[in-house]
Design goal:
54% strand, mainly beta, four-stranded mixed beta sheet, single chain
Length: 105
C-alpha cells in the first residue's frame, strides 16, 4: 500500500516492529480553507474569529493509496477510510516529538 503525505512535514511513523518509516511530503498539502472575520474589539484591539470552509487539494480516493493529512482535514472528511492522520506522538527523553505511533483514523 502506498502512503502519500499531504502535510508539509516529513512524517516519522513508528512501525509495529519499532522501526521508523520516514515519509517525505508529496508536494501537495491538503488543507481546510479559512478566512478571518473581525467581530469586535477590546480596548481598541481587534477581536477576530476564523471561519473554516471546504477542504482543498485533497485527491479523490485511489485503490491502494492512503492519504495522510492534518486532523482538521480528516475531521472534515471523516467518512473517507483512505484518509488518515499521524498516530499518537512519540517523544524522546527531552519531551521533543520524534515521530508518531503509526496512523490513525
Amino acid at each position: 500500500m502506498e502512503i502519500r503525505n499531504l502535510t508539509p512535514h516529513i512524517l516519522n511513523l513508528i512501525s509495529v516492529d519499532g522501526s521508523t518509516v520516514n515519509i517525505q511530503p508529496s508536494g501537495t498539502v491538503a488543507r481546510v480553507s479559512a478566512k478571518t472575520e473581525t467581530v469586535g474589539n477590546v480596548n481598541g484591539i481587534a477581536v477576530t474569529k476564523s471561519v473554516f470552509g471546504d477542504v482543498i487539494d485533497l485527491p479523490a480516493a485511489v485503490d491502494g493509496v492512503v492519504l495522510v493529512v492534518s486532523r482538521m482535514v480528516k475531521d472534515r472528511v471523516a467518512d473517507r477510510a483512505d484518509v488518515m492522520v499521524p498516530g499518537a506522538p512519540v517523544r524522546n527523553a527531552d519531551g521533543q516529538i520524534i515521530g508518531a505511533n503509526g496512523l490513525s483514523l
